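Annex B. Sample input.
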Amino acid sequence: MQEGRNNAGNPQPQANCPIGKVHGRVRDVDPFAYMPMVVSLGPYHAGHDDLQHKEREKPLCMQDICTLSIKNMAVLDFLQEVIFPLREQALMYYLHGINDLRRGRNDVDDDIKLNFRFNLMLLHDAAFLLVAMNALPRRNPNQVGDDEQRRTSSHGLWTDVAIVHDLLLFENQVPLVVVDKLYQIATDRTDFSQIVENFVWKTLLKHPNSPIPDQKVRTTAHHLLHQCHMLLRPTGYEVVVEIGGASSAADENAGVKRRRWHRAMQYHVAGVGLTSKGNIDGGVMHHRLLDVEYSGGALEIPVLHVDDNTCSMLRNLIAMEQASTGVGHYVTAYCVFFSRLMCTAEDVTLLTKKGIVVHQLANDETVAAEFANLCKNVVFNEDGRCNYLREACAAADERYQSRVRNWMTWLKHKHFRNPWLAIGAVAAVVVTICTVVQAVFAVFPRN
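Annex B, continued. Sample output.
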């Protein structure tokens, strides 16, 4: 029995993409970015009083699945065929165990009760996901069940947006292997992975920062946030896993000149161009949100649309990368870039004028404050191979450090911004040259 208690409280984590809690120092920067608003999935937020309304809907979702099941199975049948075979595999995903499922701090429930609570939670959460993703086929497409009608009638626009927000939180995930198994047994179909990709794809399409499909990337998603992460992968990116911790990172960076990103206004003054990658070829997008490049003396940056949920999604993607191995750190690299690029209102104003940033927040100061702290307390080796933007950073920094270009750019901004001043300066140069020539001929007259 003691062995079962240890496995339930501290399981061995899933190697590639575990579901964990955000580190305290990172979480303290913006705690609400990681907290669900209406629905709890997984053990970490289970039992919160403000999330109980959706908890009462989950058994109704399971009833819908039992009704629509081609095998006319009951809840206990699904527990036996879906949860029991996958329980240990699902448990390994939860990096911090399932002790949050206990009723209270002094809960003395034995492992049997705790494990049953975990099994039922997995089943109900998987059922809720299938209904939320509209993944279940209907026997009668023109008829909507009474239970679903009651649920949808209570949903408003805010609730629908909040549910989508909650489905993409790092601490609020369910292993898709369980949801896939439930879907297969209930429908006798095997296209669940495509349903997940389409659902996340449509969710991102509602956001202006929508990616473009990548037919080459066909990795199985571990959970919904992982699927979102894969869809945002930069074009041509290959995952680089750095092993060995800080010592190996120091060895790798030995002898390498340190480079860093600078503020947008500093780049502008130093003559480093900042251009936006817009839609081309009849409005068809040929790049992704993270496809930042340095070309022709300028940083080419895809348009970033900022709303109330943008930084929350980015923070959760960063948290997933921090806890995972083998998924890459490209979202962290992108966020480090933007946290340095626009950390003041002056930078946001400049990027907005250039069409690189489009925001719906109150003012530029609010946007700058959000992004300035986006990567606070996050561990990331900017000079390591995991940073897909390090070549662009080095090229931009080299141009930024050029004294000749800095002087020419300063002269341009200081004296040639006004066209009349430019004409006057050119005229003064011409007059000076003529004066020098006249003086030369006066001293050395022609024979």
